[in-house]
TrEMBL record, chain A:
Superkingdom of source: Bacteria
Entry protein name: Lipoprotein
Taxonomic lineage of the native organism: Bacteria, Pseudomonadati, Pseudomonadota, Gammaproteobacteria, Oceanospirillales
Keyword presence, Signal: yes
Segment forming the signal sequence: 1-19
Keywords, in A-Z order: Signal
Automatic annotation (TrEMBL), chain B:
Lineage of origin: Bacteria, Pseudomonadati, Pseudomonadota, Gammaproteobacteria, Oceanospirillales
Protein name in UniProt: Uncharacterized protein
């Protein structure tokens, strides 16, 4: 039983690691795209995203899904750190991704009514937050 | 708890699917294992006021661990929960007293690894930070809202939305580290 349990965890861990590597290979492929120099940052991002969308749910896919709004110069660092922490602390790097990711960002649109939307998003500011003592309603673990 | 189960149906189903796929569906469905795990939850609840986490629910609901493996994992999980709570307490002590009850471990937010959950929180509009003990935490107000612009003290790294606030077409906020 112990061996079987270990096998399951190894399979799960190796699967997570492979998805980070898989996304890295997408960047390798992108670097060889015949029109790479003429592709806009959004087009590059969309090419990668379409492939990532087809992957099964994984840690790599989870971090990718929230990477598009990270500061451009932090995206690779965030992805790399997620890979390293998920992969048990081993080194992980993808030079092609590092070279291309910082410009492969989504176009972002400012929303003038954003503050009015915060309530609907369960988000607040320090100015409006209620830090009065409460009975704990959110359990810790 | 029912919400947690709903939120993790995919995990439970996936886990069960993996087990079934490799032919282990006949192992580990012993009554003892299924009883020991909730007993550990009960102990946690009695001692710490904690309800079972998504991981607890996933382990239990998938029902694939044997009695001994289940007990071992549950005991390990209880130890880890205790360790996390101690680290969160240490981080919260660095903040102003009125904020301390509202600081939570990122493990509360979802089932992904802590760093991924931290980044997810920032993209959803929250402030998240890593304490010197390595634990990632975030802050909510009394209504459970993520707080955009909290300034944690004594943090190793902070992620939070950029100002002025900008939201992408898929509803996520621009964010940076500080």
């Amino acid at each position: 039983m112990m061996k079987l349990t270990l096998l399951i965890f190894v399979l799960i861990l190796s699967g997570c690691s492979n998805d980070f590597n898989t996304i890295c290979t997408y960047y390798d492929e992108l670097s060889k795209h015949p029109s790479i120099d003429s592709l806009s940052p959004k087009e590059r991002y969309n090419l990668i995203s379409k492939k990532v969308d087809d992957l099964d749910d994984s840690n790599a896919k989870a971090i990718w899904s929230v990477l598009g709004t990270a500061a451009a110069d932090e995206q690779y660092e965030i992805f790399q750190r997620a890979a390293v922490e998920t992969d048990g602390g081993s080194d992980w790097e993808c030079p092609t991704m590092e070279a291309l990711m910082s410009i492969s960002i989504k176009n972002k649109t400012a929303d003038s009514n954003l503050k009015e939307e915060l309530d609907h998003l369960n988000v607040t500011t320090m100015e409006n937050a209620d830090f009065s003592y409460r009975k704990r309603t959110v359990p810790i673990l | 708890m029912s919400k947690k189960i709903r939120n993790n149906v995919n995990i439970i189903q996936n886990t069960s699917g993996i087990i079934a796929a490799i032919g282990l569906d006949k192992v580990g469905r012993g009554t003892l294992g299924n009883l020991i795990t909730p007993a550990t939850w009960l102990l946690n609840y009695k001692v710490q006021g904690n309800t079972p986490s998504a991981v607890d629910v996933g382990i239990y609901a998938s029902g694939f661990l044997s009695a001994f493996a289940g007990a071992a994992v549950s005991t390990l999980k209880a130890y880890m929960d205790d360790d996390i709570n101690k680290k969160v307490y240490a981080i919260s002590q660095q903040q102003e007293p009125k904020f301390q009850p509202f600081i939570l471990p990122v493990q509360n937010y979802g089932v992904n690894p802590p760093f991924i959950e931290a980044i997810t929180i920032a993209s959803h509009g929250g402030t998240t930070w890593q304490g010197k003990n390595g634990q990632w935490v975030y802050i909510v107000d009394a209504k459970g809202n993520l707080v955009l612009d909290f300034n944690p003290l004594d943090a190793v790294k902070v992620y939070r939305p950029d100002f002025p606030l900008v939201k992408s077409s898929d509803g996520k906020f621009n964010y940076s580290s500080y």
